[in-house]
Amino acid sequence: MNSVAFYLLLLLISVATPPITTATTIGVTYSTPPSISTSAALSPDRIAAQVVSMKIPAVRLLDSNPSMIRAFAYTNVSIFLSVPNPLVPLLASNRSLAMRWCYRHVLPFYPRTKITIISVGNDVVSYSPDVSPFLLRAMQNVHLSLADLRIYKISVSTTFSFFNVVPTAFPPSSAQFQEPTGEVIIRPILQFLERTNSSFLINLFPYNMYRSSFSIPIGFALFEEGPFNFRDDLTTGVRYRNLFDMMVDAVISSMAVMGHENLPVIVAETGWPSSGIDAGEVDATLLYSEMFLKALLAHLRSGGGTPLRKEGVAEVYVFELVEKEAKQGIRNWGLLHHNMTSKYSFEFSDGGGGKGGRFMEVLVGFFVEVVMLCLLM
Fold first, then answer.
1. pTM for this prediction
2. What pLDDT digit, counting tens, does each position of 142-198 carry?
3. I need a surface site. Which of 8, 53, 118, 233 has the fewest CB within 10 A?
4. What is the 3-state secondary structure (H, E, C) of 8-41?
5. CA dihedral over 268, 273, 276, 282, signed as positive or negative
6. Which neighbouring-strand residues pair with 269?
7. Distance, CA of 343 to CA of 142 (rounded, Å)
8. Distance in angstroms (rounded) separating the CA atoms of residues 294 and 91
């Protein structure tokens, strides 16, 4: 009987040992709201406590407010900082200013606050063509400033917008970066990212792609299964069943053209608005927003990756944690209302495994009982 118990114990160990997965880290973006009547309730400490309570592992701070950075100390939440676009030329032309930025936004908080990445600028290419040539030098100066401070585990990159650098998403295998931006701006940056073990950052919104093309069905954009919700890349023979994967692989193909197909990719912003700018945005609804986010989270947590990147993107940041104060003429994307109450019926955190995790707990519990009974007999 002891041999049976031993066999069951080995079986228990094999079942209970979690498999190695490549599930993507899923975070949110946050920016300090303008002065409004509820601003007192949106203190940095409250925002940090809300993120921890929602079990969100990573936050992108779009304005890198030092008070907000401090609020995440000892929370183990990974923090993604951003350098504002107007500072890019200044940091490029003056190394001491880059050091001063690091002294203000990194040195007082790291490593108590788990800062993992700094984006020098956000969609600078569309923000101002005059600023774009300064990007690489600014990134280099921030990287060197961190090294001078003996900080080596914070990567430095910049964030591009999909629509401004990838003109054609389909078929993904034929995608290339927009020229002359690709050769002049992006190629040298890819070389820098490769040398410094950093990631390529991209803002990627399937909603915008869906709105720009009448040929894309809403179900394809919302991860829905259906007879028409797919696109075939005839060059590679790959069938795409959702728009998000198709856009990610277009980015990967564009990097591959420049010889950097293995660089990690981080989706720095994505989402689906719950309200539009005007009545013409009929698909910017709370229902579609919830459908997209729920399906996106399930897709990323499955660890299935994309057809061209089986391990998937490294991180995805949902735009955004808290929506702006409700008013006409703006899109709202937030997971929470501006008064910090939840907008959606689903939980952002899967609670540690969802249905599959709970089934595994029951199964392991059953085997434990069987082993104990055998040992007692």
1. 0.86
2. 999 999 999 999 999 999 999 999 998 899 999 999 999 999 999 999 999 999 999
3. 53
4. HHHHHHHHHCCCCCCCCEEEEEECCCCCCCCHHH
5. positive
6. 203
7. 38
8. 39
